[in-house]
Every structure is written in structure tokens, then in C-alpha cells.
Amino acid sequence: MKARAAKTAAAMAPAGQASALKAEAAPKKRVSPAKFFEQVMAEAKKITWTSRKETWITSLMVFIMVVMTSIFFFVVDWVLRTGVSQILALVNAG
User: Fold this and answer.
1) What distance in Å separates the CA atoms of residue 25 and residue 44, rounded to the nearest whole number?
2) Is residue 17 situated within a structural domain?
3) Angle between helices 2-12 and 15-24 (to 10 degrees)
4) Integer CA distances (angstroms), 79 to 20, 84, 85, in order
5) Is position 66 within any domain?
6) Residue 8 has pLDDT above 80, yes or no
7) What is the dihedral of CA 42, 46, 51, 56, to 10 degrees?
8) Each residue's pLDDT tens digit, 43-73
């Protein structure tokens, strides 16, 4: 967490201070593949997954929004198509 904070501070600092902050950041330690996968599993256990109900509700809301958006664009397309057709009919008739 401190390394991340140091990177953020370095990015936000003026050019002269950025190099000084980079020098203060500790070099990253290498870990063995076994330790890496152990850390990955530990982090994976911290994940809180959404419930089936939350997933269903969210999926339903996405579906509803997609339908509403498609109806909106269908109506806009129809209005524009009709308007352009009417204008072209007036131009060609006269």
C-alpha cells in the first residue's frame, strides 16, 4: 500500500520532486512461484461474490435498459427517416 501511495505522490508531484520520491521507494521483493500462488489464493478468499438474487436483478436491469435503448433508437431512426423522406419528396415534387 505504501508503494502505491508513493507512486501516486510521485505522479502528482512537480518534476523536481518526482525523482526524489522515486529514489525513496523501496525496490520490489521477488517471491517464489509457490509463495505467489499462496498469496493469490489468500486474496481470492477475500472476494465477496454477489448473491444469485443480486446477479439476477442486475441482469434483468441490464436487459430492460437494452430494450429501452433499442426502442429509443428505433423511434429516433423512424422519425429521421420519415423526415428525410418527406423533405426529399417535397424537393423532387417541386
Assistant:
1) 27
2) no
3) 160
4) 61, 9, 10
5) yes
6) no
7) -80
8) 999 999 899 999 999 999 999 999 999 999 9
Q: How far is residue 6's CA from residue 23's CA, in Å, rounded to a whole number?
A: 10
Q: How many C-beta atoms lie closer than 10 Å to residue 7's C-beta? A: 13
Cell 502505491 sits at which residue? Answer: 4
Give me the number of domains the chain comprises.
Answer: 1
Evaluate if pTM is beyond 0.85.
Answer: no
Cell numbers found for residue 92: 423532387
- In this prediction, residue 29 carries a pLDDT of 83
Model pLDDT, residue 4 = 66
What is the distance between the alpha carbons of residues 91 and 94, in angstroms, rounded to a whole number? Answer: 6
